[in-house]
Amino acid sequence: MPDFYDRNAASADQTPTQTWVSAMVVFATTFLVLIYMCGQIKERSKLVTITNFHMLADERISRVKNRFQSEARRIEGAKRFIENSDITTQAEFKGFITPFLYPGGAYLFVRDLNEHSYKTAGLTSEGPSDSGFDYRAYSKAKRGETPRQGSNSRLMILYSASQQPDMRSGVSIDTVDPTLPHFFEKAKNSSQPVVSAPIKLSNGKFGIFFIIAVGCKNAVCPKDAVFVAAMVPIAELMEAGLPASSTGQMAINLYFVGPDDKSISIYTNDVQETQQADFTQARSLLPDDPRYGMTLSASDSFVLAQGEDFKISYFIALSIIVSGLLAMMFFVLANQNRKTAYLVLKRTHEMDLMARTDSLTGAYNRRHFIEEMRHHTESIHPIFIKHGLIALDIDKFKSINDSFGHNKGDEVLSALVRVASENLRMKDVFCRNGGEEFFIICPDTDAAGCFILAEKLRQRVESHAFPIGRQVTASFGITEFSYGETITSITERADRALYRAKVAGRNRIEIEESA
């Protein structure tokens, strides 16, 4: 009797393709989910990094803005000091200004003097006095005239309380700079500090001047107006008080927008900016003329410190590892579960087969016969579907037991089952009813078809060499199922046909028509 589980028992130790495919599906699904989650985490992390960048940029811009404002407040304080004093001496001015100085800064006390007052002061044009207090005439030559102080007239630093040699010797500004006349004229017409455009100093660097007129009323200044000015080197403006740890975190560009709306870069800190987007910010420092602005970009070191550059590769590697582990776990568990399910199913089938088969011959037993009969009687159709039943009995089986013993009789029964199983169709159901009597259920087969099958079996049994050394024959009784008929009536009719075959001489086939 063919057994599906016996035929496929070898596959229990093999890995089915379905398990591999399922494991790959788990890997791909887990990987995609993790990549999506990592993408969300990266986006949020990038938002945090961008926020940190903007906070750092705002702090840097605020620092520069505060420097602009503090310089304006300082010269405004110096102006009030001068206006509230009857006579301002160099010592008084020095004592007042010194606490306000930044390292590297310089204050100017500028007076627009004519040639007479210049000589009266007892000063020469050779350079600053030993006291460090120096007047220089700032004069704009009329068209066609020669400048009073020679062909290279320039404005020198008038006062430097920082006592730095380079400041004591003065920093010069060429009067040919077209912004200077406008700068002083604007200061005369304003009661607030005025900020100059970036002016290139004689040392090749840029500086920014803050100036305010003294003694002016209602924006009207006397002809010999006095000015208080402060000069801040741009490098000092951008770098003073900056922690060393943050100097390389941003690429900074300070620019000035001129009257022609063209931007001029006046300071860069030589830090390489990152190529990633969203890490650049441009802000205006002074909304009015002159227009200063800053462009700040995060550096590669800033991005690396935030971890943005390696997070995506880290996330991908982590996703592959986690997905691989889950896929391996799924594969192991699925394979183990498949083997367990196979063993359970096999054992269940074996137990069910034991309950349904005859332990001696291996044929189905009466319990299975009754279940199959119930199924076929319910599926029968009065016209289109016909089933047949064959009753089979070994002739003179009692004499075989008496002559050769019960063991030989059992061997004859087993041999008969093997002969029948080899010659039956796959859909036929061969059952032992008890003793030497057997039933064969023939689905979708009428009496004529059952007769052909019974005749084939009769000949095979008659010609088979049984272990008792003599010929063994069998008798057959055939009948058809009738619609609505009970199992008992069908089996009784087959038994009656079998009985007639026995009475008629054995080793023959008899048919009893259905009711």
UniProtKB/TrEMBL annotation:
Co-factor(s): Mg(2+)
Q: Which InterPro entries match?
A: Diguanylate_Cyclase, GGDEF_dom, Nucleotide_cyclase, Rev_trsase/Diguanyl_cyclase
Residue ranges crossing the lipid bilayer per the database entry: 20-39, 312-334
Which keywords does the record carry?
A: Membrane, Transmembrane, Transmembrane helix
PROSITE patterns assigned = GGDEF (PS50887)
* Localisation per UniProt entry: Cell inner membrane
NCBIfam families the record matches: GGDEF
- The protein depicted here goes by the name diguanylate cyclase
Q: Which organism is it from?
A: Pseudomonas oryzihabitans
